[in-house]
Amino acid sequence: MLSKSQIKLITSLKQKKYRQQHGLFVVEGIKTITELLQSSFNLQKLYTTKSFKIDANNNKIDEILISDSDLKRISFLANPNTALAIFEIPKPKKIEKSGLILALDAIRDPGNLGTIIRLCDWFGIKNLVCSNQTVDCYNPKVVQATMGSITRININYVNLENFLKSTNLPIYGAFMDGTNVYQKQALADGILVMGNEANGISEPIEALITEKLSIPRFGDLQATESLNVATATAILLSEFRRRN
Amino acid sequence: MLSKSQIKLITSLKQKKYRQQHGLFVVEGIKTITELLQSSFNLQKLYTTKSFKIDANNNKIDEILISDSDLKRISFLANPNTALAIFEIPKPKKIEKSGLILALDAIRDPGNLGTIIRLCDWFGIKNLVCSNQTVDCYNPKVVQATMGSITRININYVNLENFLKSTNLPIYGAFMDGTNVYQKQALADGILVMGNEANGISEPIEALITEKLSIPRFGDLQATESLNVATATAILLSEFRRRN
Prior knowledge:
homodimer, 244 residues, alpha/beta, CATH 3.30.1330.30, Alpha/beta knot, four-stranded mixed β-sheet, 9 helices, elongated
């Protein structure tokens, strides 16, 4: 049986305010929980309807067996999995100002952020810098969409304008009217900024961009919507990496 | 007021079986409805809480004004928009066997298919061929994710194995262990096959691939998950197009 206070704590973690207050976040699904157990992230509580017994490193896990109906009460999903874990939010490490850094200016969709974190992992981007207006990376939908990649990327939330002002690195930005990225002979490491889903890169950030890049469009020029920000990020990260 | 039979028809269109039986599909949200009204798609019914009056071409629209509560009864969304439209499913045109064709082998996630249709539109891919195991493109979540692009792409559902057997075009496939796509000097037009989210390209289809391609991974080789199929499609379509 779950106590009322346990249920209250867990369901409060849907909200960023309480995640930050408690320094905790929720993960659901055996696959992602197992990935996190194998990482440096610290487990706080594991609620499960079937015993995990040991984690991937053969360590005994302190698990709390609960019923399906209890899981339903604490799950954030319409169709709950068999387990829900609470992990501690790790302290972000200092941003290394080397290599390629990805910066996000007010990305709002959890699925997009999750996909972008997974892309960082694939393309070996170690540092992801998010403006304070970007959706929280410990939002359950983001964690789910990262497929475990969240454990391998150093994510910092910052005042993006101040952060960009403090660096001498090249600052690239994705725009509809930038230089055709295919025609760039070289792309030096620096910071690549991707903008908000509806509005793109905001004006104060645009003023700090040293090179505007764009992905050429081949479809009907009148009609085609812009690319989704996660797919545009995929293409631009690929463009940076293929030149190495 | 909506009649019971109207409500029954609309809600039945959540299911592929009834979409096919009636030849109709549902679109919600003013932005996507407006995109579809501007296309060659035929409107069957428009239910709205606020009058559209005229469409983008200044034609009078035959709209049915309904209350918020009626919209709530027919909407597929948790938070309904202000309008819901029913359009006729268009007859797909014959697949043109020229240019670059994208083929999907059992893509199951509606968001992925929607994103891929939007990518086709951006990259000027006119023909999308889906295996019969691929999620229905008139699934409401797919339509929503295409942002109107669905009106500009010719989408055919086929027996993919038979389709690929009937062509002499190069057949590319995305694999974890294919040729590094960055190192290809040229990529001739042909058919690019993308596989299922969990299992990749199925064995019968793999046997028909003439060239396996892969996107190199730069992150930690042990840990990183595969790329999401929509982002992998974005990168590969970009690779085909940037060589032109």
